[in-house]
Each structure stands twice: as structure tokens, then as C-alpha cells.
């Protein structure tokens, strides 16, 4: 948080926190610098009780600052309509889309204004727009609970308690929010955030104007499947779906895993077997025949995975309806690594560094290969140029491999799901060349053309995009090499 924002905390909340902190180590006052490394000697002289009281004092200051941040974010959330009226620009393409969807101009401007405010905050705080939208929605709900904000000001609630109550009040009608607050606040003041969330959920259920059947039917439209990269060659898959389906899917995987657990010479735990069973179900539509018969299950990796692929192709009726589906996976390998003169890792598109051995496995089983040569010193992809308006397939592929994701600052949407945009418009003299093309997701592509956001490439830096927000904030985005 910027120091200018910290300095605006209420004097009352600062005094409450400062009074409760041990004199030997007063908690950091509003706007103060964080403790220096030489404060360690002071810390070692404090008793456990004094350390706990100091932590509680700092917690109270954090709570007060969270209340102030909530009020600021709620006001920014309210300013969306003004931003749309001031910074929306005429876009003929938007007119065509509007005629198809029936959106009215006022609605379009309001939605665009909210997007402008979200993008402004996101680039200023170097956060994703999805995170900012969540914070703005939460702040708007929390601002409608004045007693909760007052408790935050006084350090009587933590931000975690406040988030639980803000989540619970969603969709509670405005006339009933005071009643909601009266019913949930005592529990939050005396319990944990988890307990406050349970209480808020129960009260929300009582006060909600719609039946749970209607809400469940609407929420089913929010189901999704999400890929989240993790470190060291691993990743998460998240499924958001109706609870009955989720529980049934888990029980099926768990039952299969427990039937295989404890087999001789199988070192895997139940958690690992669950992951392997789920992998087989997703990739092949069933669990390996030997495993189902009770034989030791094989870890799904390396040669075993290739053997399963070969088996699925030899048996056309096996593996479910998607057994023959071939995904496109782009792996970039430094040329010196292939020659054995470097230990640099390979790069999996949409994920990041992976072991060279895994990349070689993928290459060995791939039905076709696209050669992607990287510069041995900088790691950047060697470029080609084009001069026609339509982006040729090879140039489109090159730009997506180079950019990896949307080039709007902070956006992580995969380049494969993005539009290819001319930074300098074709009608204004821009060329269809690698140094005038960039990947923009559909949302930010529209934002560029429908608002006063501006983008340019600084002279001498063809891989850099310099964005200027409607409020004058300048931020750059670079197409970094994969390593």
C-alpha cells in the first residue's frame, strides 16, 4: 500500500493500536518505516507475553488500515459510471456488437467505465484485474456494513473476519443488511473467521429472497475447469461444478485409489494414487485394465504414459469419446541444450520451465513438430517479417510463441486464446510485421479500441509496449524470453 494512503488512517485507530503495544517495541505507527534489522536485539529481550501483545497491536493497525482501504476501494467502485462517460470512445466494431446483443449505449458505457477503473488500479498495484474485481466487489459489500467497518477501525475484527462477513452478505437485499449485520457481528467478534463464515452463510440463507433451488440452477452456469501452474514441473487442475457431481467424482476416484492402495512393491500413498487414477480418467476415459483387476498400478509418467497412448490408439473403442483427441502442446528447447552444451530447461507454453528430459519425451511421442530456434545468448525467438494486412499463419504462430500471453500489463491469458493486434493501426500506416503485432485477449483488445487507453512501441525497443492509462499512468510490458 502506498505511504500516502497509510498516512490517512484515523487518529483513533492509531491510538488504540499504539496503547496496547509493549513499550520496548511499539508497533509501527501509521506511515512509519518497517522495523530495521538491528531491532532483533530488542525483540530478544521481550517476553512471550510482550511479543504476543505487540503482534496484537500490529494486527489492530492492520485492521484499521484495511477499513480505510475498503472505503477507498468502494468509492473507486462507485466511480465506474463517471469513468465510462468521460473516457469511452466511439468504436464502430462495438456498435456492431451492440446491435447483435441489444445492449444500450448507457449500459455499454457503464460496463466500460467499470473496466477502465479496474485496469487503472490493476496496473498501478501490479495485480491481475481478476484480483482487483474481487477486491472492489468485496469492498462494496463491506462498505454496506457500517458496524463491521467500525469494528475494523477499532481493531476488534481482523480483515479475515471482515472478508467472511462481506462474502456472506452478497445478494442479501439492502433493506435486510442491517438485520444481517446484527445477527452475524456478535459471532464474528467472539469467534474465528471460519466460524464467522459459517454463521454468515446460515444467516444469508435465511434472509435470501430466492430459494436455494433457483440459486443453485443459476450458479451451475458458473462451472469451469481451470489450469494453474505450480513450481518444479507440477500444476493444479481445478473443477468448479455442482457439489453433488463433485462429491460423486471424488468418491469414484477415492474408491478406485483405495482398492489399489497397499499393493506389493507399490510405494505410492493414497493421495498419489488418487492423482494417478484421476489422470487416467481424464486422459483415457477409464482406469488401466491391469489396475482395475487389482494388479499393481503404474505411475502415469514417462514410458508408462506413452504405452497408454499407444494402447488407446490400438483399441479404438477404448478410452472414452475423447480418446483420439490430440491437444497441441508447444515446447521451446534452447538449441545449445539439444546439443548437450547447456543445462537450460525447456519451456512449456502456458506453464514455464520443465526438465529437458520431459521435453524430449514429448518430442518423441509427438505426431508432428514445429521447430522453434532460440537465440543462444538472449533466449529470444528469432523473428521474421511480413507486409500484408492479413497475418499469415507462420507469423501468427511466431507472435504467439514470442508473447506467450496477453500483452496488456498484468494479464496472464494464454496467447493461444488471444487476438493478434496491430499496435499501430493498419489504416494509420502500421505494418503486419512482428514488431507491430502483439497478442491481446478479447477483453483488452476491446478496451484498447473503445476507451482512451493508448499503446505504443518505444523507438529502438520493438518488443516493448508502452501503455498510457486514461488518467495518465504509464506502464510498460516486455515480451521476455522464456528463460
UniProtKB/TrEMBL annotation:
Residues 83-107 are annotated as: Disordered. It comes from the Bacteria. Residues 394-446 form the HNH nuclease domain. Belongs to the Rv1128c/1148c/1588c/1702c/1945/3466 family. GO terms for molecular function: endonuclease activity; nucleic acid binding; zinc ion binding. Keywords: Endonuclease, Hydrolase, Nuclease. Gene3D superfamilies: 1.10.30.50. InterPro entries: DUF222 (IPR003870), HNH (IPR002711), HNH_nuc (IPR003615). This is HNH endonuclease. Pfam families: DUF222, HNH.
Amino acid at each position: 500500500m502506498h505511504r500516502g494512503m497509510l498516512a490517512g488512517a484515523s487518529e483513533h485507530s492509531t491510538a488504540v493500536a499504539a496503547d496496547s503495544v509493549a513499550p520496548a517495541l511499539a508497533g509501527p505507527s501509521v506511515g512509519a518505516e518497517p522495523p530495521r534489522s538491528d531491532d532483533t536485539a530488542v525483540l530478544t529481550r521481550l517476553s512471550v507475553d510482550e511479543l504476543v501483545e505487540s503482534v496484537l497491536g500490529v494486527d489492530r493497525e492492520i485492521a484499521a488500515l484495511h477499513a480505510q482501504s475498503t472505503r477507498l476501494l468502494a468509492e473507486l467502485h462507485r466511480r465506474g459510471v463517471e469513468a465510462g462517460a468521460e473516457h469511452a470512445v466511439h468504436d464502430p466494431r462495438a456498435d456492431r456488437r451492440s446491435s447483435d446483443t441489444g445492449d444500450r449505449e448507457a449500459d455499454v458505457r457503464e460496463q466500460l467505465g467499470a473496466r477502465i477503473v479496474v485496469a487503472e488500479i490493476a496496473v498501478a498495484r501490479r495485480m491481475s484485474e481478476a484480483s482487483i474485481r474481487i477486491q472492489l466487489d468485496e469492498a462494496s459489500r463491506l462498505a454496506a456494513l457500517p458496524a463491521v467497518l467500525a469494528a475494523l477501525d477499532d481493531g476488534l475484527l481482523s480483515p479475515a473476519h471482515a472478508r467472511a462477513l462481506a462474502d456472506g452478505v452478497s445478494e442479501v437485499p439492502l433493506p435486510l443488511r442491517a438485520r444481517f449485520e446484527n445477527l452475524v457481528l456478535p459471532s464474528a467478534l467472539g469467534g474465528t473467521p471460519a466460524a464467522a463464515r459459517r454463521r454468515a452463510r446460515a444467516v444469508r440463507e435465511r434472509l435470501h429472497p430466492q430459494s436455494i433451488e433457483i440459486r443453485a440452477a443459476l450458479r451451475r452456469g458458473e462451472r469451469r475447469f481451470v489450469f494453474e501452474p505450480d513450481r518444479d514441473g507440477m500444476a493444479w487442475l481445478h473443477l468448479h461444478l455442482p457439489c453433488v457431481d463433485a462429491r460423486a467424482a471424488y468418491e469414484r476416484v477415492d474408491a478406485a485409489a483405495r482398492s489399489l492402495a497397499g499393493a506389493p512393491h507399490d510405494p505410492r500413498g493414497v493421495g498419489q494414487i488418487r492423482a494417478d487414477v484421476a489422470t487416467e480418467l481424464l486422459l483415457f476415459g477409464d482406469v488401466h485394465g491391469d489396475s482395475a483387476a487389482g494388479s499393481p498400478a503404474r505411475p502415469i509418467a514417462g514410458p508408462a504414459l506413452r504405452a497408454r497412448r499407444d494402447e488407446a490408439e490400438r483399441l479404438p473403442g477404448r478410452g472414452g469419446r475423447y480418446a483420439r483427441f490430440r491437444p497441441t502442446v508447444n515446447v521451446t528447447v534452447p538449441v545449445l541444450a539439444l546439443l548437450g552444451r547447456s543445462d537450460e530447461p525447456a519451456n512449456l507454453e502456458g506453464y514455464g520451465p520443465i526438465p529437458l528430459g520431459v521435453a524430449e519425451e514429448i518430442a518423441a511421442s509427438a505426431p508432428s513438430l514445429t521447430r522453434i530456434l532460440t537465440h543462444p545468448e538472449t533466449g529470444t525467438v528469432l523473428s521474421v517479417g511480413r507486409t500484408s494486412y492479413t497475418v499469415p499463419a507462420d507469423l501468427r504462430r511466431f507472435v504467439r510463441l514470442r508473447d506467450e500471453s496477453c500483452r496488456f500489463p498484468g494479464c496472464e491469458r494464454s496467447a493461444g486464446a488471444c487476438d493478434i493486434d496491430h499496435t499501430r493501426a493498419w489504416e494509420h500506416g502500421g505494418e503486419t510485421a512482428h514488431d507491430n503485432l502483439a497478442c491481446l485477449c478479447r477483453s483488452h483488445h476491446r478496451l484498447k479500441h473503445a476507451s482512451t487507453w493508448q499503446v505504443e512501441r518505444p523507438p529502438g525497443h520493438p518488443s516493448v509496449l508502452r501503455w498510457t492509462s486514461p488518467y495518465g499512468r504509464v506502464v510498460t510490458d516486455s515480451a521476455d524470453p522464456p528463460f
